[in-house]
């Protein structure tokens, strides 16, 4: 049991509201901060029952709690993780946190209650909660807006594409060379726009419907992903090596897309020779850290963050096929699972994409 001396009490007295209460629940000492906090005049609290500072609905329970404290007097802190309120003289309530210290004298045992007014902290917490709610709401709206817009964009685009394709079919080599080129550009542009819209739809769709997480053996999941990529792997003569992977609670479809996008990129962004890909995983703190390493073209240092943004690419589509959505999707999936994704790379030598998934999902 910790025994406090008067010096200790006085040292702390100036900072916190302090109340000394005896076994019967009578306040024997209240410092000025306590009087100010609860709205009492000097000396007015001394001699009153401590329950006058407890909101009425909790008073009966408080008497029992006080008895059980004195039956087993230990240092305790109350209020962290649950809402605790004090009652002011005018009946209004104030959110508080309380620390209890037993004080033993030769004859009697007291409790020293140190009370902190957490009104400001509660206000900030509430503000954070409100803005998180607002952000979630706006994000939802934005996703819905992007989804509807891209859906609506597809209709006129389809008409443009069909008529341009019709022109191409009917008039190719019947007009002059320039006309053929122009029609070609329209068809190509419409095709590209269609794939951008489809990608945007896919991007906004991820996470729009929350599915319960299921226990996933990542080894089996990767096996299926590699089976689906069999043609790309063999056409590019790629070698994929993989360490043993853990079992995690995930949205299986999303994690498959994550692996697939990273592996396809590792195969795609090579210049010469066969792509060699290594997939590994280790525990790091409270996370699983996955790594997908390739021997490809690498990524310039200054572009390492930009590539995770939607439609951001470092090459023309003539150099490397694509729309720039793959890594943005990966980032969204990892974010939704509470992890992080980043790349480390050396130009000309290869890249390693890392992502973490919290172990709470294991
Ligand atoms: P896309 O593959 O359609 O271009 P991504 O979002 O998957 O779109 O990738 C964005 C850009 O990041 C790519 O255009 C490429 O420049 C770069 N990148 C992605 N993965 C790799 C990789 N493994 N090696 C080198 N560059 C990469």
What does this structure look like?
The protein is α+β, with helices and mostly antiparallel strands. Helices cover 43% and strands 22% of the residues. The chain has helices at residues 6-13, 32-38, 59-71, 119-171, 177-205, 218-228, 230-235, 252-268, 326-336, and strands at 17-22, 27-30, 76-78, 85-87, 93-104, 109-117, 214-217, 239-242, 247-250, 276-284, 287-293, 341-346, 350-358. The strands form 3 sheets. Strands 1, 2, 3, 4, 5 and 6 form a 6-stranded antiparallel beta sheet that branches. Helix 4 (119-171) packs antiparallel against helix 5, helix 6 (218-228) packs across helix 8 and helix 8 (252-268) runs antiparallel to helix 9 (326-336). The longest helix has 53 residues, at 119-171. It is elongated, with a radius of gyration of 33 Å. It starts with 5 loop residues before the first helix and ends with a strand. Bound molecules: adenosine-5'-diphosphate. Adenosine-5'-diphosphate is lined by residues 261, 265-266, 269, 294, 296-299, 307, 313-315, 322-328, 351. Residues 261, 265-266, 269, 294, 296-299, 307, 313-315, 322-328, 351 line the site of adenosine-5'-diphosphate.
Q: Sheet with the most strands?
A: 6 strands, antiparallel
Question: What is the succession of H and E elements?
Answer: HEEHHEEEEHHEHHEEHEEHEE
CA distance, first residue to last residue = 41 Å
Radius of gyration, in Å, reads 33 Å
Low-confidence region ranges: none
Structure class: alpha+beta
Question: What share of the residues does DSSP label as strand, in percent?
Answer: 15-25%
Amount of helix: 40-55%
Any ligands, ions or cofactors bound here, and which?
A: adenosine-5'-diphosphate
**Mean pLDDT, all residues:** 88
Q: Globular, elongated, flat, extended or rod-shaped: what is the shape?
A: elongated
Question: Please, how many helices?
Answer: 9
Q: What's the total number of strands?
A: 13
């Amino acid at each position: 049991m910790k025994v406090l001396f008067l010096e200790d009490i006085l040292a702390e007295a100036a900072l916190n509201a302090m109340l000394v209460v005896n076994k019967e629940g009578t306040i024997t000492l209240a410092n000025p901060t306590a009087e100010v906090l609860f709205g009492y005049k000097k000396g007015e609290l001394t001699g009153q029952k401590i329950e006058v500072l407890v909101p009425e609905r909790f008073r009966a329970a408080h008497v029992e709690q006080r008895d059980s404290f004195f039956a087993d007097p230990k240092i305790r802190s109350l209020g962290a993780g649950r809402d605790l309120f004090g009652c002011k003289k005018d009946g209004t309530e104030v959110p508080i946190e309380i620390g209890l210290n037993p004080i033993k004298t030769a004859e009697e045992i007291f409790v020293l209650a140190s009370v902190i007014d957490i009104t400001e902290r509660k206000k900030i917490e509430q503000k954070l909660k409100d803005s998180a709610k607002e952000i979630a709401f706006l994000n939802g709206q934005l996703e819905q807006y992007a989804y509807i817009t891209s859906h609506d964009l597809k209709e006129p685009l389809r008409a443009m594409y069909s008529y341009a394709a019709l022109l191409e079919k009917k008039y190719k080599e019947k007009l002059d060379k320039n006309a053929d080129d122009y029609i070609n550009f329209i068809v190509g542009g419409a095709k590209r726009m269609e794939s951008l819209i489809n990608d945007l739809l896919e991007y906004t769709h991820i996470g729009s419907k929350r599915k319960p997480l299921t226990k996933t053996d990542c080894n089996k999941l990767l096996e299926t992903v590699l089976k689906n990529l069999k043609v790309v792997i063999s056409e590019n003569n790629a070698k994929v090596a993989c360490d043993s992977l853990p079992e995690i609670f995930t949205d299986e479809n999303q994690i498959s897309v994550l692996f697939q996008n990273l592996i396809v990129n590792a195969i795609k962004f090579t210049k010469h020779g066969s792509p060699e890909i290594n997939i590994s995983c280790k525990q790091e703190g409270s996370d699983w850290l996955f790594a997908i390493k390739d021997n490809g073209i690498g990524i310039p240092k200054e572009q390492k963050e930009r590539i995770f943004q939607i439609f951001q690419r470092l090459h023309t589509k003539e150099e490397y096929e694509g729309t720039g959505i793959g890594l943005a999707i990966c980032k969204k999936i990892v974010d939704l699972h509470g992890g992080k994704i980043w790349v480390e790379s050396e130009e000309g030598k290869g890249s390693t994409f890392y992502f973490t998934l919290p172990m709470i999902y294991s």
